[in-house]
User: Fold this.
Amino acid sequence: MTISQEIANLTEDSGQDLPEENVQIGSIQGTVVGLRYYTGTVNRGEMVSLVREPQNPYDRNAVMVANVYGRQVGHIKKELAAPMAYIMDNNLARVEGVVPYGETNKFSMPVNLTFWSKEENRDAVHNQMRRHGFKLGTEFKGSLIWYSTKTSLGRDLLIFVTSYQLKNAFDKLFDDLMEDKTREMEPAEAVCTALLPHQKQALSWMTSRENSNDLPPFWEEKSGLYFNVLTNFAVKERPEKVLGGILADDMGLGKTLTTIALIVSNFHNGKPLPLEQITMCCRTLTHTIVILFICVDHEESCEPVSSSHLKRLHADGVSADTIEEDAPQKKGWLLFCVLMQCTLLFESLGFLKHFIKKKNSNTHCSRSYFISIQDQFEQHIRADVTLKVYLYYGAERKRSVKLLSEQDVVLTTYNVLSSDFGNKANSPLHKVNWLRVVLDEGHVVRNPNALQSKAVLELQSERRWILSGTPIQNSLKDLYMLMSFLKLKPFDVKEWWSRIIQRPVTMGDRVGLKNLQVLVKGITLRRTKNSKVAGRMLVQLPERRVFVQHVTLSEEEREEYEQVRKEGRKIIGSYFEEGTIMTNYADVLAILVRLRQYCCHPGLVAKYTGADDPGTPNELREHLINKITLVLNSGSDEECAICLDSLRQPVITYCAHVYCRPCICEVIRSEKQARCPLCRAQIKTRELVEYPGEEMQAGAATGENWRSSSKVDALMSNLLKLRQEDPTVKSLVVSQFTRFMDLIEVPLREYGFSFTRLDGTMAQKTRAKAIQDFQDSSPGNPTIMLLSLKAGGVGINLTAASHVFMMDPAWNPAAEDQCVDRCHRLGQSRDVVITKFIVKDSVEENMVKIQKKKQELVEKAFGVKKPMDLKQARMEEIRALMEI
DNA sequence: ACCGCCGGGTGCC
DNA sequence: ACCGCCGGGTGCC
Assistant:
């Protein structure tokens, strides 16, 4: 995806209560008075903010005027302040100000006020102003306006200036890209894990961002003053440096490893972190600090740290007497990582992870891991250095500022941080002056109102980093949170972010868009697996070859298949004729799923429960539960027709259409007579039937009466051949039907394959175990993994596999790619061979055609799909599949 | 002069 | 503010 595409996505803002909903309903020139009483200054063309001051002792209508830095400039003249106060207090409109000239005036200056509100408030605002003798106009005569969408002389003049300045910014950016981002840097000697070239580049870039003396984006030095080209703000003092940024590399490029290298390599001015040197003598004393890792999904389910563990902790160097005083520590900068989930930590902590030793593999609710720092050194860091790492986590964490201050690295979770912050009396993390704060999976903090976001923003630090594969998840607003964290002035204040970036971009202003690009590029390093540096692939991955193996059904299978197909065609054909295809969508889907199942294995196909008439409400409910279960277990990767995303909290309507609960509830709420978006039947919230969750399916014939299928035979002959050629080769066997995986288990056992399995029904811990076993190459460990297409989401590392067998085609080609990516990624040493089984002359072949079409569509247009287009597309698909 | 005029004091809200 | 406004001083020319 290109940056502009990404940005185009950003402008689709899902939130509510945003200034973008507002339109400009009028403007007027006012006066700022009392300039001589305040120190705040403004420049020509500079934006100012207007703040109500209801407590002002002289006038309860007072409206204060402040510059971008929040310094008070003056007040709005009282006659004008009176109607403005009413408008602002009653939220009739937002008022924004720009000082067009008179910036050197001593006593008062003009200010161009622009009123923004919802259309419905337009009259109220105009009337209120008129009552006080003011008439809101639409244009300022001959003065400069910021980001006016109208063409006027003044506007052109201003744009000319800013675009000139922008060009400078762009040139700088270009230098940035050419030099800083491709220069490599060797990590400190203490790191003995070899960094890949792109990781060295990231390390160099991060180091330069931390040590740079450059002005923050959009600041320029002009004749002794520092000038912000976007707000026209000038100050004498050099604006605070923004040390840090966003490392937004794709998953799997080694963000965490790079960051660890940064921690060790750039203490101050490119000098490595001074690490204690342990002599051989000391090492033999096994002076070991034991750090406890609790690896759980949710903090609540965490097993408390046992006292014996803690004793161990104390005994091994963190003595109890160091854990007393909570006075803020000024001396010594510290390093600090915030990690979202311990599981992630465990997965991604790069060189640390090898030292995590499983302690209780059988514990169900949580598992504890020990990290022996001594072991760590022996393998990954030079044997004679030590790094003090403290995991600030668990009920009995030591809330000692002193203890924390003495660490090289402190790890904690967002939950712990915000829980400490919530009991604000005692948040040791907020009392330390950190050298560096790193937000791992930083996109999880994106709602600025959430407590954890506030907790993150309050951390004192010299340098700040955000690590995130998806820095912008939904909208531009997410980016605002990141700017606040980085303290990138003035964008850490909502008003300026909205006025300078968010609204212009949302309104389609090109300058705004360019500013956003410059801003993001200036502080972000983002590479994908497909990025090229100087014409070469960033990551040289082994080859990836795709073979389609056509499977011919046996005579018996063909007969069964054809019978079902004919029946299905008849039914679907009649739906088309009646125009009821959408009302009977679930039944259509059922038929298609059945056909696809026949292609895999006849034993998969459930008994036909189809279009029988439900009688009592209970029977109807039962019926609907059956249908939704069918839809969700069909592996068809159904999208919600409202949000066009994967289903979240799926519910089925009485008319048998499946949506996300929040989506359909919103539809019902917003319409008086709510109708199903797909079939226009009336729907009600209380009639929505929920998916009861994963249920034990009627067991497929995996026992005595097991029989094979053409596709299973095809798979087995491939696997046997592979094993014969090279018994160490590992394969992924991917299907959308978990019950197909059940069936495949039988011959795998029969032929003595050691295999493991990963599907969506498995708990997080069992999954982790399955992955771990599969990745382990020592003899006796599984060589085959049965993998459900949708299992686990991205981020799972299955690089042990070099062969992938796609048992059945998916509706969504991206899902297949993603699945293959789990083994075709960083760390894969062999060429990856993908075999797709497609049954000849079947619905599967048609699915492949549709896949290709979809792919083309994605590549061609980045157009927004509308629900009704989707419906149309679905119908086309059904026609194509059934050859109607 | 219950005015006009002068000139000093003063000045956001 | 090289203004406006206020209010005290003043009062034919």
Summary: Residues 106-107 of chain A lie near DNA strand C (CB under 10 Å from a C1'). The two ends of chain A are 36 Å apart (CA to CA). DSSP finds 26 helices and 32 strands in chain A.
